[in-house]
Amino acid sequence: MSDISYDEFSLFHENLEEWDLEVSIPSVQRFFVAVDGLRQLSGLRWGEGEPQLVLVHGGAQNAHTFDTVALALQRPLLALDLAGHGHSDPSPFAHSAFEHHARDLEVALSELTNRALPLVGMSLGGMCSIVVAAERPDLVTSLVLIDITPGVNTDKSHHITDFVNGPKTFDNFDALLARTIEHNPTRSASSLRRGILHNALQLPDGSWVWRHQQHAAPALTAPDPGSLWDQLGSLTLPVTLIRGMAPGSVVDDADEAELLRRLPDATIFHVEDAGHSIQGDQPVELARLLHEIVP
Predict the structure, then answer these.
(1) Is 4 a domain residue?
(2) How far is the C-alpha of 274 from the C-alpha of 172, rounded, in Å?
(3) Label partner for 259 (CA 20 to 30 A): which of 130, 134, 138, 242?
(4) Does 280 fall in a domain?
(5) What pLDDT sits at residue 88?
């Protein structure tokens, strides 16, 4: 296949059409912020004025995973790329090393804003966000976890890691799209094509590679939560869990019960017809909930 042109800011009309959103496309800018010597994190700044919340994606994703959510929210916000993902520089640590991602986020947030903000983390981004909230409460006013708790393990997440740890390169775009469709049967082909364009690169020889694998990254594994339950339980700020109720979610009833045991005042929302990637399966509903959670 010949080269496929890509402009990361030219596809938002597809998000609007797919979800019947009759809203304007706000200004969106890519930014870079130094976090460790010459190493930089990147992200997207949506809207004008001071950001009202921060969104952090899951493993093997990037900031564009929240595009439809951001369009539906119509509020100034930041969506960050974790190290080794999207347009951020690689990290010397594994993708699943959420403690190290958390340190990057702490530095980036300190540089990007002068006030504490609600922190919304999906999957791996949620585990990082728990650490940030525990270590730097001056940066976080509230915590929203999207389909993740410290109860995640290899069994619960194997369908995700099986897909992510597939072929390292693909001969052409069609091969990459076919595999993605195979592993995401409930999503539209157009949305998956758009997601690939945001999350993959075409190499000089015409083959394609995921952005998160372009630096010879090790296989994605379920992170060892270590003391994460204790860190989550120590929080005094508002905590919300948004749980997908369709197949693919990595949160079960035992996780929900443990969260409420440790944080009786936590709020939990269930999203029907959404698996692990609630921002992909039900982005408009997720935006509605975030409006409710973050007034």
Answers:
(1) no
(2) 30
(3) 138
(4) yes
(5) 96
In what helix (H) or strand (E) does residue 119 lie, and over which residues does it extend? Answer: strand 117-122
Helix (H, G, I), strand (E, B) or coil at 15: helix
Residue 6 resides in a domain: no
Residue 117 inside a domain? The answer is yes
Residue 111 is part of which domain span?
21-153+226-293
Residue 137 CA, distance from chain mean position: 21
| Active site (annotated) includes residue 147 | yes
**Which residues, including other chains, have CB under 8 Å from residue 155's CB and lie 6 or more apart?**
none
pTM of the model: 0.95
Catalytic residue among 123, 129, 249, 277: 123
Query: Which residue in 94, 88, 86, 91 sits closest to 200, CA to CA?
Result: 86
Please count the structural domains in the chain: 1
Q: Tell me the mean pLDDT in the region 253-273.
A: 98
Question: Where residue 45 sits, what CATH number does that domain have?
Answer: 3.40.50.1820
Catalytic site residue from 57, 85, 198, 276:
276
Which listed residue (81, 147, 255, 281) is catalytic?
Answer: 147
SS3 259: helix
pLDDT above 50: residue 125: yes
Retrieve residue 127's tokens.
Answer: 């585990």
